[in-house]
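User: Last request for today: this protein with NAI, please.
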Amino acid sequence: MTLIPGDGIGPEVTLAAQRAVDATGVKIDWRRCELNEETILRKNEVLPPEILASLNRTKVGLKGPVTTPIAGGFPSVNVALRKALDLFANVRPVHTLKGVKTRYQDVAIDLIIFRENTEDLYAGLEHEVVPDVVESLKIITRKASLRIAEYAFRYARANGRRRVTAVHKANIMKLSDGLFVRCARETALQYPDIEYKELIVDNASMQLVMRPEKFDCLLMPNLYGDIVSDLTAGLVGGLGIVPGANVGEHHAVFEAVHGSAPDIAGQGIANPTAVMLSAVMMLRHLGEREAADRMHDAITQVYQDGKHLPGDVGGTASTAEFTNAVIRLIQA
Ligand code: NAI
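Assistant: Here's the final one, the structure of the complex with NAI:
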């Protein structure tokens, strides 16, 4: 397994997830690869070949967040990695976690975001046309739109989900988002058992805040998927608890939705739940169902007990105290 701790809170939360996975008894040979702001600047390389070589060997990775400088500096490692390995499907399950106080105490939120992960405005094609005028290209292709739509519908059918909602802005971007929506409609025809709906992204954002319990599977191009993921994380208690997977034909890299959280890095207080739940998704991907269930149940039990909750969800436990509580239950 390739383990990329990343930077900021990354090393703290990935260590917690690694300890919990090891506690399940599944034997994993962790290949640790350093990829963070410091190594990127030192090597002057966003994605060193040894990282790709490791992922090409192991096929599966668990990754912490990596910092990307804002308005300048090197390009995003995360985007580069997803493109290099063609990790086209970003899957982000967002569930109510019993024991976490939210504004939505009385409803059960259970939705999954399927974010196209390789193109859109994240293609990184930007240039200055003339001074003070820049152009960013939004790339949408039939191939990428069809495969993420197909992934979402197939997942919905295999996992007993009832509805896929395509989220877009095709009323304005008639060609690019228009193509994305047409591909979703075309795919929907092959899945008559799954209800298909469409929502314009601004309306979708309002409805998610008003009635999040009504949503099931959400299919989106890259940018909306990125933004709406954080919005939906906010509905269930924040970024500390929402996991994710980047899946391609040949590789899968599991990582939380959150970033490197520089505001709390190094303090030992980050919530490792999101990376732990990403590791649970990883164990399922590896076919280790029993270990995945045991780790998942231990995490949810710690929340229900409410004695060892991290600060972002209203508790006072450190990263290590929360992790130890999870491990005790895994081994019980
Ligand atoms: P962020 O997700 O790092 O933090 C947003 C807020 O949520 C902060 O207040 C932070 O303390 C809190 N938070 C996030 N994760 C938490 C956790 N596990 N436990 C407790 N609190 C948590 O977003 P921000 O600040 O916008 O980005 C920081 C850096 O992370 C940027 O350089 C950004 O590019 C990078 N980033 C990397 C990602 C990745 O590697 N996949 C994804 C998102 C952002």
